[in-house]
Every structure is written in structure tokens, then in C-alpha cells.
User: Fold these one by one.
Assistant:
Number 1:
Amino acid sequence: MAATGRKHLVKDFNHFMTCYLCRGYLIKPTTVTECLHTFCKSCIVQHFEDSNDCPRCGIQVHETNPLEMLRLDNTLEEIIFKLVPGLREREEQQELEFWKKNQPRENGQAERRQRLGLPDVVGDYGGRDEDDDGDEEDYHRNDPQIAICLDCLRNTGQSEATVTDLMKRFIRCSSRVTVGTIKKFLSLKLQLPSSYELDVLCNGEIMGRDHTLEFIYMTRWRLHGENTYPMVLEYRPRIDFG
């Protein structure tokens, strides 16, 4: 006998794919690890600007820094993109348009690059380190690019200077790079032991390891009135308050 089960429509799964805060499809689904509720990344981070509680169940996520309790759900993101035709393309186009519109213009450098026919990218510091292999030059080349400055944050109250300044503080990389990757980069360049923990901060606030540079720039740098460029991130040994 042939199966008589009815076909499911996309709207049948909307309850699992929509954000409680914006009511739209989940974009960069981000789960609160304390209660496992999931929201758009931008929505939940904006909510945590004013509250430390989950907007859905009201549980206190963290006493001081709820952003540390967020994790991206890449599997759910792929499922949503497969179920909703054209959603991925629309989001990528909107992201591209945002970066084109909000690309910092410092002393006319971007206009001059355009006149000279150079790539119109964010920043112009050269993200590759001196000892990088040439065959990696095209890695993430088509991603939106961002320039950052990595500064060693001192005066942490620790008796020993366990971390030092980088020889090359200015780098340019994909805006999709996460804080976790920045930490790995710092550990490699500073030759730190694998067990050594670092904090990465922007404007004095510790950033979650899953935050992308794009996200930090939009929510912690640009929206807080910082007009200087490149974006400055600070790093320090992790402080144990326990």
C-alpha cells in the first residue's frame, strides 16, 4: 500500500525556525547554553545589552557577562537555509550591501583605492604575516575584509608579564573570523602553552569566543561611537575571579 502521510509545508516548521524576539527566520542561530533557547545572534546580543536574563524563559544567564553563554548553531542554520529557498542568498546580499554602505572612509583612502583600481576592502594593512606561505594568499579573499589592531592589555594585577606585544599588531582578515580564531592566532604567535587561556576585549568588555569580527564591529565598536580605524581589540591573560 502506498503511504498516505500528508506532505509537510515549510510553515509547519516555522515554530522551530523563527526567532522569539524578531519573529523572523533565525539568522545565525545562537543558543543560550543555560536554557537552550535559540535566537538570531544580533537579536539576543542586543537583548543582553539591557538584561542578563533569557527573554523567553526569564532565567538568569550570567551575573555579569551573558555573552559568554552563547553558542552558534551552525547545524540549525544549514537546515533553515535548506528549507527556506533563497534565504541564504538574500542574507549574503544584505550583508554585502551593509558592508559597502558602512565601509569606513578614513582620509579618503577608500576613494583613492577605487581611483587606482585597487580592491575596495575594509582596511589596508595586509593580513598575512611575514612568514605565511604564498599559496594561502587567496584564503577568504572574497569575504568582506576588516582591519584590526591587537593590543596587549597590561596592568591586570598579575605579578608576572606572561603575555607580550605582537611584533605585528595590525592585521587584515575576513570579517567572519571569530574571537576563538583570534585567540588561537595569539597563542601561536606568542608561543603560549595550549592550557593558557586568554581573554579578548573590545572597549573593556570580554568578547565571546563565537563572536565574529563583523559582529563586534557593528555592536561594540561602531554603535558605541568609535569612529577611529582600525578596530582595536585587546588581549590579556584570563583572570580567575573565583
Number 2:
Amino acid sequence: MYGHGINEKVLEVEAKDALKSKDLDKDGKLNLKEFFYDYLRPEEDDDHDEDPRDKNVTFTNLDGNGDGLIDLQELMIWEGGFYFMEEAVDKILLLADKDGDHQATFQELADAWHDIEETGAQLPLRGIIIRALGEHEGEGRASEL
């Protein structure tokens, strides 16, 4: 289900299901703890794997209206992978834009590709890149991404 080009209605159903499963206080929105709550493994309610500062930044960035809660529309951005795509594009631009004009030419992207691959920034955009190359051409190059 996670990926690019997902149908809007399917994405909404997916997000509603996640919201229902994680919304412990049943207010129709997710606070920070509920958002990162793993309803599949509720007994593992610790943060030993992740830096809590990263969680706070992610949550704040996703909270588009700044109310301190994640609503259905904001959750759809997360569930559809769009949050990661924007982050990936920003990272790719940072690595490729050598002349500082806030744009990446094809040559700048090509020159920076090794650095982009090392960071893994291209991974959330893999589906878009493959489609842009063309289905039959992209399949042969998918391993390069």
C-alpha cells in the first residue's frame, strides 16, 4: 500500500484505519504519543530505536495547521509517503545544487548521483524515477536506483 501513485480513496481508507487504530483517546486526532504508538506491538512502548528529537521534528513538520495534533488530512500525507518524498527532494536538491540557484539541472543531478545514492535520498522517489524513465526502460535500470 505504501508508495507512489496510490489512489486517493484507497489512501483515505488506509489513513482512517490507521487513525482509528492509533487514536487511543478517540478524539479523532493523534497526539505525538498516539502518532508513534505501534498498535501492532503495544507492549513495546519505548523509544530505544529512535531519537525522540527526530520524532518531535517529524511530528511538528507533519502538523500542518500547528494545533499539536495530526488530523486525517495530515495523516494521509504520512500514510501516502508524501512526507518522505518532500524530504527526499529537499535532500537531493541540497546535494545537487552546486551553483546555489535552488534548482538542479540534469547535469548537476548526474554529477551528484553518487552522493545522492550514498545518503539513500533517492529511495522514496524510486517509483517516480522508474516511471519517468519509461516502464520497459526503467525495469532494466531499477537495480541502479
